[in-house]
Amino acid sequence: MRVRNCLRKVVFSLAVATSLSNTSTSFATPTPTTIPSSFADLVAPLLPAVVNISTTTLIRGRGEQSQSPLEMPFPKGSPLEDFFKDFLDRMQPEIPRNVTALGSGFIIDPDGYIVTNNHVVADADQITVILNDNTELKATLVGRDRRTDVAVLKVNTEKKLPFVQWGTSEKLRTGDWIIAIGNPFGLGGTVTAGIVSHMARDIGEHSRSGDFVDGYIQTDASINMGNSGGPMFDMNGNVVGLNTAIFSPTGASVGIGFAIPSEIAKKVVEQIRQYGRTKRGWIGVRIQPVTEDIAEGLGLKELKGALVGNVVRDGPAAKAKIQSGDVILKIGDVEVKDQRSVPRIVGDFAVGSQVPLTIWRKGKILSIPVQIGEFEEAEEAGVIPSPDGGKELIKGVEIHGMTLQPLTEDVRQRFDIDKDTHGVLVVDVSPKSSAAEKGIRPGDIIMEISQEEVKSPQSVVDHFKKAEKENRKSSLLLINRDGESRYVSIKIAPDGDKS
pTM value? Predict the structure, then answer.
């Protein structure tokens, strides 16, 4: 009996060993990789091209009412309470204060062009670049792009500056070594190393960028507050990413950082240097993913492409007879893997060029040429929600007590506004605002502000911000009401009308 059990054990052991030996050939054998003993030689020539960025924003505001020596002479809730508060606001002096912020950047041209994040320099009144040798230089903003969170600065210097080269992020693979250099917590010149944790990561609501970044480089290299705008290098010392975000419940690094791929950042930087802004391609379609159910319903054998959910009226796609229900399979020679890649692919084409769209329509594959339009022009006209007001356009952009909406085709039809009328629509007015005091009411159309044509709600916001910084007391608006025009001058509150 014991002999039989022992034989069973031997047979079982042999069977397991045979099974393992047979299956082992199905596993990939990893290629041995040499772990760097030091990054010092790689980092040394890169450090001088990485800069610290300090921004200053001047905020003007009134003092707190609790600091007033006067006590409220009326009971709370009295009809005269608001009047007395307004009186105290006018009596209290403005208290200007500077708000500073820190970030990182890197020099891409010996003549002083520097790349950083848009959110590092947004709304800054003064930008200072601090070189690796602690030299401080005043910087000017060449241009910025809120859609990808990229900005370009320029400093003037008599000597040529050290600079770094762009690399190819498309060659990166998960597991590759990378190095990040930046200014975390204002410490400056800090080097961290790690690996590429994931490629083409969708970070959704954690992203400051828009549709034109269809995937981020994820890394476990330490990236903290102040690293924003700094470079991510490959092992050849080339910039493969622009560090832009972290995922953290505390605000400090937990080993999950994200960078904009260099393939995207480089193109944005080139356009900003050439035009002072971006000029992206646009075809005027709203798209959605191709799910299994949709693919089955359309007769598609593979889950690929992007489904056209809606076609913007009078846009390039509409003029080319693209229809709702079409599935875009290719744009030019570039295959569309999913709906997230469409804006970036189209955005890379030159405005005005003819590009064939390969589509699936009712069981047939068609090639339809489309003339590429300009994304920024459509955004300026209000056809596309801007990143500053994208979600707000549903309820409107609010400024100085007025809620504004662009004159889109839907708005024109709903309110019976003809195509010859330009400007923005006032959809609501706060009763206590300076706009209400001057008789502005819902339904009015703001056509001009300070004799400049109004193209979008954001242009009104930008005007008022500029006027506040220049300490102007009022702005002149040209209003269209029921087909008749008149000028209205409204007061500009020093700290912005919050009513």
Answer: 0.66
